[in-house]
Write a structure and sequence with these properties.
By secondary structure, the chain is an all-alpha fold. Helices cover 64% and strands 0% of the residues. The longest helix has 31 residues.
Amino acid sequence: MRRFLRENGLSLAFGGLFLLTLAGQAVAGTADYNAQQATRQLPGIGFWQYTTSSTYAADVTENWQSEYLQFFLYVFGTVWLVQRGSPESKEIGKEGPLDDEQEQLGEHAGPGAPRWAVAGGLRGLVYSRSLGLLMGFIFLLSWGAQSIAGRANDNVERLRDLEAPLTWGQYVVSSDFWNRTLQNWQSELLAVGSMAIFAVFLRQRGSSESKPVGAPHEATGVEN
């Protein structure tokens, strides 16, 4: 068990923190929702009723879709785009996909290689892009879920204000949907872009996201 925890510490730690913050958001969201209900002289709701509501679902999914958009763009973007001096970038002049030998694909696969990488062909083609494809799929799935939950939540507010509810098509072109969407996109893109630049000049000793402390600022694609 100790070995398992040590070898999977990164995923277990972030997974645990994710569950704690998700639960914390539900607790805080319930309190905030009930406070708003009180100001309107309306009855509050329980914790479980809130966590199954469109309000909670919309808040959660709008954050998820922006995170997976970030990963999708970064995974595919770093194939073709480089940043001089960044440990997150490939070396200058190596833009684009590598050949099968460099990627250890098909006949070039070594012992212990994934079966789809050894198979090559269509399976190798799909597997060689599977990370980006999965990130893109989860992004679209969570973005779709956001549009459904967001519409339901927005219609609750509209009915409360005696306004006609919106169809799904009307909602996805509405200001509420795009305000929720774009405020998350811009924050994720800012975070990724600033990390790529800051890592050129700043260091974090012992982190795989940083260059060695003494590495030149111009050193590209170098990690601890």
